[in-house]
Amino acid sequence: MRKFFGKFVSVTLAVAVIAMFALSSDDKWCSRVDKAFDESVLGSFLNESKAGYGRYATGLPGQAASVLADSGENGENGENGGTGENSGNGGTEQGIGQTADTASTHRDYEETDKISAGISVEGVYACGRLTGIYEQTEGVLVVNTTEVTDEDGKKVNPADKKVQCGDYILSVNGRTVADKEELSEAVNDIMKQHDESHEDKSTVNIKFLRGGEKMSADITPVRMDDGRYYMGIWVKDDLAGIGTITYYTKDGRFGALGHGIGDGTQSGNLLYANSGDLYSMKLTKIKKGKAGAPGEIGGVVYFGKKSHIGTLDCNSNLGIYGQLDSDELSEYAAEDTYYPVAGKDEIHTGSAQMISEISGKLEKYNLEITNIDKKATDTNKGMELKVTDDRLIELSGGIVQGTSGSPIIQDGKIIGAVTHVFVDDPTGGYGICIDEML
Question: For residue 105, with 0-12 CB atoms within 10 Å meaning exposed, 13-18 middle and 19 or more buried, which class applies?
Answer without folding.
Answer: exposed
